[in-house]
Amino acid sequence: MNLQRPNGNDATRSANRSRSVVPCSGLCSRCIDGCQGNCEVFRASFRGRELIYPGPFGDITAGGDKDYPVDYSHLNIQGYAQGAEGLDQGVEANPDNARFPLVNTETAYGWDAKVKMAVPVFTGALGSTEIARKNWEHFAAGAAISGVTIVCGENVCGIDPDLELSPAKKVRKAPDMDRRIETYKKYHGGCGEILIQMNVEDTNMGVAEYIIDRHKIETIELKWGQGAKCIGGEIKVAQLERALELQKRGYIVTPDPSDPIVQASFKAGAVKEFERHSRLGFVTQEGFTREIERLRSLGYKRITLKTGAYGLKELAMALRYSSDAHIDLLTIDGASGGTGMSPWRMMEEWGVPPVYLHSAAYEFAARLSNAGRRVPDLAFAGGFSAEDHVFKALALGAPYVKAVCMGRALMIPGMVGKNIGQWIKDRSLPKTVAEFGSSAEEIFVCYEKVKDIVGAGAIKQLPLGAIGVYSYVDKIKVGLQQLMAGARRFNTSVIRRQDLMSLTEECAKVTGIPYVMDCYREEALKILQG
Per-residue pLDDT tens for 111-121? Predict the structure, then answer.
């Protein structure tokens, strides 16, 4: 099986010259002296480290395209001809009452103080990447009116050009963080929440203290990692002064902007940008518990944890430590998604893929539960983008998984909506959009729904990307209702692992979901023998 081909990919803006490529190395089978490019080795020969990352930074999201031996497409959803589980109490299960629009897609997470969401999806951490910063209004307003949670990612305060620090180097003023929180709160209707993610640098800068004192934020998230990479968060900056500023704030900046040789290369035009990196975290149960206690002492009602595509040991640590510390939501992110900037080869080749990681998460959660320990609410992440993905994730991890975390899939509608607004203004609508009309009212099928939510006066000020996000979430909701009705599940809380089948024996081995020809076989034979 050819799982992926290195050395040429649209993400790195590279391609092989030859149609014949060596599968393992990705090099052309016939490499010619004098070739004018444009494979990764060719470009790296003069641009070096730039080829580590997808680009152009700030204008793209990137996701690894490795074809794993087993993925969620190897699971199918069961359909039934009887029953209607999860209807409201006292409602009779019959064709009049068991209609798909009546399916309840709401979910909730939290150890004691629950947060309800209208649909079991929420955004991945939208932090210090440029793509998140410049589209934030669209993302945040869209999540708020859709009734789902948005995660404001790490390093937002640390990279703010207008950040003010106290003499003790603690956050005193962070305008960009203020903007992000206030935008979500402006449109928040009661479902979902904004929660802030925190890494090593954020902790050192006192971000937790700032956001609870100034904004009364109720939930904060600790981060062990993500599915896209096994190192800290990264961004690029194109100005030497900006690179030096971030270095003074304690970040790792490469190449070293204080090095006279690097400065000379920048002035000569060879070095065109710098990378800002976060430090690696070091996890111990004692340190984790101590930080949880510190955050609770500050007044946080909920504390969540995001962990990445680490192996089984770290997965077990995350589940056990979260159980012991009463974590409100544990998000488990499989390889190899990404939202802003991650090393491309790391996205392709590092970490445990989603269906493997999530299957192990269910197994470990069940072991904890059988041992009498309460399992924290879980969320699965890792390349999800459609309603069937949501159903499968909820079913594979049932009854522990309460929601699906989406990265790129919830960003794209915000960017599309934003761009439609600009195209309308410029009178340059592409044919793919213009076929539906020339105004926002005509183009967005959910325009009137959103107008009813925010009000006739506010709709004109609402970022159009927010309507894009709402339209996408509405599609997820309706599609999920249809799948759930077909599986005779009328509430997300009653979705079960038995609602899935494995299409291959390898998938059955990985997931513990029976092979399609074994599902309900005993029941079928009893009917035949009866």
Answer: 999 999 999 99
